[in-house]
């Protein structure tokens, strides 16, 4: 059925079953019939695979309006139509993800944005439940930004763009200025009081037939009653001054002239609206929350704008006028104002330097005054997310105001809370450079920004940079702020984390004991910062083989912090929760560790999101606990999921990705996927050296995991060589009486036994068992694994009586501590060897 046949019918138009985010049809839409028909036929002509069709042209020619018109005009051809704003590529997947519930798929709140978006793309590709679908990607830039989000399948895709590079990857329908007759038709529709054909022809010629310029001219005449003759006269008078050297060629002279006339008329009729528009010009081009324009008690705001903001009725009228003159985009549903970046630039260039500085300072005041105290509750996070796009364009880093700098530091803290470490790191670097240049490198704001920057470097796996920065920072904060200032204590805590990241576990423990003492003396034992220091010390205890000490400290930190902080969405609380579950697992209570880990993961997913860094850490540790408790299928599901997310979010070489890979390696080993485990384990082992340096204990622990796989695959000689090297390195770094060293020694004894060197295996096993009993206790699972293996080797060496006694006591202890059905217990009962593997804790 053709468009004209449908239009002539008597039945009401049928909307698709899914009709999402489509802008309303423009009642003044004019012409474009041939291009719309070309687009329709081009889309219908590709029935086997999606070939994107682009509406390409420079700004203001009506690409978006044409796409909107197509969606409405041909809606009966589709069961699903979905509109996606593509000017911010990072948000495209989010827009796709919100289509998921309409396809009976889990939404982003359940699976995360990435998985929900992938589910949508797969459903569209398969054409289930809808094969007749249309996606519109509006205002796209580079083709590479959308390569992986344009679905192949039975439906259609339209892309609107200014970028001519799309011509090489998609079939392009060029959208140009109106032909003369369509310009005249548009103006006659846009100006209800009427305009003569002669005036319309002359006006459209003067405006270059550019749809956006025509829209602005029509809006001005409709709102003010200005005649076409007056408009043409003013256009001629004001065109020259508006021309600027170096302006983008896609914004021609007539468009800027029409815009300037709208501004001039606004200035004449409602000057306070003009002041509001000028203020908006110093924000970013993203939506500005309307409620930012609220009286500021102690910030520098121009008197004319202060008076306007103090009168809600006048403010609403001014905002309405901006919208009516087509100078801003109003989103009444979300209560935002948006000004095109070109208009912003032209407004700024009209002003002298002192006025620019005054308005920019005003914007800083509005931004800082609107920032909430909290960084964790949903409303506060939503507000920070609205403010974030304006921090850079508003040049917040240039302010020397303590209040504005405090806002900037609060933004860094917010970015940490939501897990956006890359952006936090980038902004911290900008703030440090500018503030140090303006105020010196020992200014308190500079020192705090450096401390936050060091923390984010560590979160990003850039351990050496973090360590170097903190070492340089500590004497500065001591000198400037004092030895017991809270910021000094924060730097001390960061330096302890650096020692852990470098593998200096004993040094970290000694350092953090002193740091905790200073916190308790200065702040008190129950303050949040003190509890964080206690949590850090708990990590040190776990890394130095005192699992009971670690558990006691983590339990105290978790319980007191949870009691003090009832605010939802706290990554600190989740870290404490995760630390407690980890220490319980290391102590050998796998069931309790699973229960704690499950509760913590539920909290993280619900309060922070499925892909928050702290949630992913918790999920990975739960996968380890599930494996240790014998729940291999559940462990594998968790490990596969978390590893794929880490790969996508952080890349293959990030330390947390590597930890997830080693977690998956160990699970594949216990489930019999030895070849895949070896391939992944070897690759991860090599990458650990690059991430941590050659002497870090984690490198040698990972090597031992790989060696274990070689022995299980029949190459005991290679396993022995690898374990001997790993053990020697761990002995040098940590000493033999460390659970990493003793775990490798346990596996090395098994290598020796497999090679027929039973005497050496017994000798090594006896010494290792004695040390494990002294370090971890008689009933720890690592101790019992070593004992069970020693019993096997004793029996081979004619120590049957001793072997029987040791085997019996070991089996009894395994039943008592782990249960009769645990895989350790069953393996010992069957006379199979037990292993100790390595799971690198995240630092």
Task: Explain what you see.
With 843 residues, this protein is mainly α. The protein contains 38 helices and nine strands. The strands form two sheets. Strands 1-3-4-5-2-6 form a six-stranded parallel sheet. A hairpin with a 4-residue loop joins β8 and β9. α10 (228-242) packs across α11 (253-269), α18 runs antiparallel to α19 (421-439) and α34 runs antiparallel to α35. The longest helix has 19 residues, at 421-439. The chain is elongated. The two termini are 64 Å apart. Mean pLDDT is 87; it is low at 1-10 and 239-254.
State the gist of this model.
By secondary structure, this protein is mainly α.
- Low-pLDDT residue intervals, each spanning 5 or more residues: 1-10, 239-254
Count of alpha/pi helices: 38
Q: Indicate the mean pLDDT.
A: 87
The main β sheet shows up as: 6 strands, parallel
Shape: elongated
State the secondary-structure class.
mainly alpha
The span between the termini is 64 Å
DSSP, total strands:
9
% residues in beta strands? under 5%
Features:
38 helices; 3-stranded antiparallel beta sheet; disordered N terminus; 843 residues; mainly alpha; 65% helix; single chain; 9 strands
Topology, pairings included?
Elements: H1 3-8, E1 18-20, H2 33-44, E2 53-56, H3 63-73, E3 80-85, H4 92-97, H5 108-111, H6 113-126, E4 133-140, E5 156-161, E6 171-174, H7 180-190, H8 197-206, H9 211-224, H10 228-242, H11 253-269, H12 271-280, E7 288-289, H13 303-309, H14 312-324, E8 329-331, E9 336-338, H15 341-350, H16 353-369, H17 378-391, H18 402-417, H19 421-439, H20 444-459, H21 463-481, H22 486-501, H23 505-523, H24 528-543, H25 547-564, H26 571-587, H27 590-608, H28 613-628, H29 632-650, H30 655-670, H31 674-692, H32 697-712, H33 716-734, H34 739-754, H35 758-776, H36 781-796, H37 800-818, H38 823-829
Helix pairs in contact: 7-8, 7-9, 8-10, 9-11, 10-11, 11-12, 12-14, 16-18, 18-19, 18-20, 19-20, 20-21, 20-22, 21-22, 22-23, 22-24, 23-24, 24-25, 24-26, 25-26, 26-27, 26-28, 27-28, 28-29, 28-30, 29-30, 30-31, 31-32, 32-33, 32-34, 33-34, 34-35, 34-36, 35-36, 36-37, 37-38
